[in-house]
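Q: Can someone sanity-check these two? First one:
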Amino acid sequence: MKPRILASLLLIFPLTTLAQLPQIDELMANHVPTAAVGLWVQDAESKEVLYTHNPSQGFTPASITKSFTAAATLLDLAPDYAYQTTLAYDKTQHQGTRLNGDLAVIFTGDPSLTTQDFNHLLLNIKTLGVAQIDGDILIDNSYFSKPYTARGTVAEDAHWYFGTPVTSIILDENQIPVTVKSGARLGQRVTFSLNTPINAPLTANVTTVSEEESKTLCQLNVVLNPKDNGIAFYGCWPINTKQPTTQLKVALANPELRVEQLINDFLQQEGIVLTGKIRIAPSQQTPDTLAQHTSAPLPTLNAMSMQRSNNLYANSLAKVLGKNNYQRGTLQAGSYAIVEILKNNLNLPVQKMRLFDGSGESTYNQITPEITAQLLQAMYDHENLRQPFFDTMEVSGPQHSFYSRLPKSVVPPVYMKTGSMTGVSNITGYLKTQHGRTLIFVCLLNQLPLDRSQAHLFEQKLLEQLNGM
């Protein structure tokens, strides 16, 4: 081949070698010098590994865990999989306006079920023409099992919306919205109010303090009471005269009690007489379906888990995998199911990972850059699941949380999953370079300071460099 032709081809199809990537070492030294850094860059088409750093070291994945969960659901569940919430009875016991037996409400962990959905489901009792139930109403919460949080989960997380209990009963994501209004002056009481009809006693003993004091000496604390879903705030809240009102979401401590209250309210409003009790029990003598509520299908559920990084969705789907594969609706069984599904279907070397939940809340989770890249490569190579897996991920654009991390030179689409918690900032995904190459990238940053701005700057510059390849 003549030199001129070769030179022209190199301009059109630039070659990338490992010699072009040592700038990444300089970026690490400048921006994350004390962090634990794991990197892997690979060409998705040729499978050529272009750069690695600590490829076999274990890292806390945070929400990158959700990518493993999403892949396992796509491999194991039907594309149209959906949750079912069921009203069940024995139709032979229905005579005119009376039901001479039990009525069961069977929950299966639908994370998208709302109070409105549940009330519409209950209306089918009235539609059937039932005016009196001579039996009990059974709340079947047996599909998932305790514990409702994973090993290694920070105890405080269970009080807030991102750590709500993963029970069979989920209503409004098992969250309670609360409005907080700081005092106009230091030392004044902070006021709290509920933005929901949930019957949850609310008490507060919180003082307005300076921003600095709220960060160093006195914080906001919350205690939840499962006996009555009570919420008690105490501690301090920073003054904010420009925007004194803030919205918070705390966890619903006892979803069973919430359902019982909703059923009682419905019976009273519709004038339906219950001669028995409302109780928590498995539904064994109710073989017939009166009505069902069906959730959105798996693609929508996975999008909520991945794009919204919703812990409840991810952990509920993990429990479903445990239930389907091992008849145990626990996070332990679900985590084991994820690992086994990926091993059996994608031949992943799962000894290089450790999972305790499906969301990444557990600090016991561990992954390596290598196995993360292997997952991304395997899903890219999967003829039927590449696009469904892409569809679960965040796609670069102003509406997405990671958009601010992308340098202007990086042109969408970038398919990415982020993961963060205290001391952790991770990004993984697929990037189409300016020369048309599809790269798999894994960037795991652990042991970061509280201020993660330099970590985010490193991520930006890393993507910018990869984009030029």
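And here is the second, same format, sequence then tokens:
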Amino acid sequence: MDSIEFIGAITGTTAILMPVMIVWIVMHYTTKRREAKTLLNEESDALEILLNAADRMEKRIDSLEKILDAEDANWKDKAQ
């Protein structure tokens, strides 16, 4: 096999493998990105706990504001 045939074989192989490699790389990193976007079970549980705590806090704040409104309707103006 002389050098021209060798170069031709390399070029042909590269022409076939290059599109395959490009598709593989795109699909690989697309899958990795999707995996990174999903929450783990532990993260999902922690998020649920935080959301419940935020809901309880919001109810407490609403209750406190109602109490303060009953005691002094202008308390918001005084607080600023």
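A (reply): Looked at the second one. The chain has three helices and no strands. Residues 3-37 form the longest helix (35 residues).
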